[in-house]
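ok trying this again, last paste got cut off
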Amino acid sequence: MAMPLSLRAMRYVQAAMQLGSITGAAGVMHVAPSAISKALDQAEAAFGVTLVTRARAKGISVTLAGRDALRGMSDLLERYDAMLADVTASKESLSGTLTIAYNAPIAPAFLPAITARLRSAHPEITLALYDGDNTTVQAGLLNGSFDAILFVEEIPNPQIETIPLLFAPTYCLCPADHRLARGGAVAISEVLKEPLVLLDRPAARAYYTELLERGGAGYQIVATTNSTEMARSLVAVGTGVSLLSMRPAEAAPYAGDTVKCVSIIGEPQGVTLSLGFPPGPRRRVLQVFIEAFEVFLRDGDAENFIVRAAAEEGL
């Protein structure tokens, strides 16, 4: 079976057939004449026909079959070059759709501020935003469905390049009039005495369960939910207290009433929210999104969405 003909070999053959000269094609393509001759041999083997007749003094003459092959190769090379130009233009363009998925339940509290800055500077950009769990958003990035993801990186994946964005210490959420809300911080042993509302999302459940078990006492889970907002509302109406990591910017729960975020004494544990994207060259529109996120973090706006650990507050 003949070896496939490379695009480079096609360009050599095209040049030789158009110029009617192996030596002339070698000069245009900046290669040795032997490379052009070898490409012609490969092309004839691949097509199974004679493409040119060769005369030492007169150069080469294209056969009828060679003319048909030349038209096909020229069309293919033209479409390939057009495709490359389109991809390059898309990579450099600051228009088009930027697709972002997030495993950050409170992303609606801060992501719009970042994308608003992005679109203010580049109004040609269209946004497509998707909510999902940690596993789903990573799978979507790997299969090309998303340009970037916001997620909690548990195990490094060489197929995903990451930028750590924000460390969010774990805190206790309780009703504003609850006994745990009276101080600025609370020990995990005190949290274990209360009925608990557990955030039951992939990765989150195992993390919070491990934290509770390290408390060294029994605990009672009275409700589970895969929604951060549902957990906040259950806490607001007195169902129990909850352990969370990120918080909205002082937004009241859907169920009304008020809640308080209380830092946990001696618990530096938390989660790191990271931005993930495919390794390698980035589309320009993705790069400006990353830069907008970095500006958001430098400006200190992200502080509104975390509860500093008690040790950091000097408590």
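PB: full thing came through this time. The chain is about 40% helix and 25% strand.
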